[in-house]
Specification:
about 450 residues, mainly alpha, DNA polymerase, domain 1, 28 helices, about 0% strand, elongated
Length: about 450
């Protein structure tokens, strides 16, 4: 009667907010529902006001009145995390704790009821199932968990190592895969770990990457297990380049040679074999020249010998390591020019025919600003570039004469472009070009 009076009376109050009336009606209806003799919670309005709606729902859940609790939560428009989702989780935990219920039907019923509702953690329910000794039910429930990290954590706890690794890989989260790999490595016998991880190529690749940075020994063990001789050899080569392990360089390179031989990688085998030979040769030079050349390339080692004027040893190295004639001549020319040994450079140029021509002799002399020495080699420069090199040495008169004798109009124009305009040389070149044009 009071509610009806209030409903009638608010019609006569101007600008009244009906929200308070509606809220009170909802609360009264809730109170009447729980006071029903079938429920038996004679709570007063004041008790409800001070204890809160969530407390009332907890009392209903404790009595397993799940349906009524959900209806009240929706009726009072409570957030899912405090209302229906939380109640469903309580219901699911009660379900999985009942040993007489079939695991398949329980998992299906929970999945159908929950779907992919927000705020619900399947892993939390699966943990409860696992604690109740229902491992298979926990695994079935985890299939519906949207967070891969929680799936993986519980699967590892249940000693389901392969499913945990598979879930981590499917998630695409590299950090999660690494977490599973390292957990398996620490908790499994080494042989079992290696056999497990080799069945998952993605995990194996990530573990190899990890070992490259943190555990080279474990990396080599993997390559031995897989008979990957090329990768074994690469590991030995990297080890030989480690400055902290110079005392084992020979052994590392020898191991690399053997690995490439087993892999039938002839090219890499010959390269490593030559590197090992070079290393031993450089060590033998240390006492002779009182200088450590270990680690330098064939090019740099030969250059240093030439700089020290140990021509005999440089020739020996050239023969043993098959340095091409063109490269050796260029190194010899450059070293003599750097030492300003112009007499020896001239002798060397006359020792036999240069395989790289004589333009390089001119270049090194000009680099050192020694034009008088450069002029000695100009007549021996090949005809196709002789005009250019005479111009480079600032011998424009001679360049113009050679171009004229070669009947090279383009060469004459090039020389003219380098000479001063209206000069006697420029006029002479114009006359020469006219004569060559008339003869054509």
């Amino acid at each position: 009667m009071l509610i009806r009076a209030a409903q009638f009376g608010k019609c006569f109050v101007e600008s009244i907010d009906s929200e308070d009336y509606v809220r009170m009606c909802r609360l009264l209806r809730v109170l009447n529902s729980v006071r029903d003799r079938r429920i038996g919670i004679p709570i007063t309005f004041t008790e409800l006001f001070y204890s809160g709606h969530k407390f009332l729902l907890d009392r209903l859940v404790t009595r397993r009145q799940y349906y009524l609790a959900i209806c009240i939560a929706k009726y009072l428009k409570m957030p899912d995390k405090d209302g229906s989702s939380r109640i469903l989780v309580h219901w699911a935990k009660y379900k999985v704790s009942q040993p007489q219920l079939d695991e398949e039907s329980v998992a299906r019923e929970i999945a159908n009821k929950f779907g992919y509702a927000s705020g619900i953690s399947y892993s939390d329910i699966a943990t409860t199932a696992a604690n109740c000794g229902r491992k298979q039910l926990a695994i079935k429930l985890l299939d519906h968990e949207s967070k891969a990290s929680e799936q993986v954590q519980l699967l590892l706890k249940l000693d389901e190592n392969k499913p945990a690794l598979l879930k981590a890989i499917e998630s695409g989260d590299t950090d999660l895969v690494y977490m599973v790999i390292l957990r398996l490595r620490d908790n499994m016998p080494l042989a079992d770990f290696k056999m497990t991880i080799r069945n998952f190529p993605v995990a194996l690749s990530l573990y190899i990457k990890y070992c490259r940075q943190h555990n080279p020994q474990a990396l080599n063990e993997i390559f031995i297990q897989e008979d990957d001789f090329n990768s074994q050899a690469q590991g030995f080569i990297l080890e030989s380049l480690d400055e902290k392990k110079t005392h084992t360089q020979d052994a590392s390179l020898t191991s690399a040679v053997e690995a490439y031989k087993k892999a039938r990688n002839d090219v890499s085998f010959s390269i490593c074999e030559e590197a090992l030979r070079l290393l031993k040769y450089q060590r033998s030079l240390k006492d002779k020249i009182n200088e450590d050349l270990v680690g330098k390339s064939v090019h740099d080692t030969c250059t240093r010998l030439l700089e020290l004027k140990d021509i005999k040893e440089a020739e020996r190295m050239r023969s043993n390591f098959k340095i091409p004639d063109r490269r050796y001549w260029w190194l010899r020319i450059k070293c003599l020019a750097d030492a300003h040994d112009w007499i020896e450079l001239e002798k060397f140029s006359k020792s036999k025919k240069s395989p790289i021509g004589y333009a390089h002799f001119v270049d090194v002399c000009l680099e050192k600003n020694n034009i008088s020495e450069a002029v000695k080699y100009l007549p021996r420069v090949s005809e196709d570039i002789i005009v250019k090199y005479y111009v480079k040495a600032n011998k424009l008169e001679e360049a113009a004469q050679i171009a004229y004798e070669q009947r090279d109009i383009q060469g004459l124009l090039y020389v003219q472009s380098k000479s001063a305009a209206q000069s006697s040389l420029s006029e002479k070149i114009n006359a020469q070009i006219s004569l060559l044009g008339a003869r054509k």
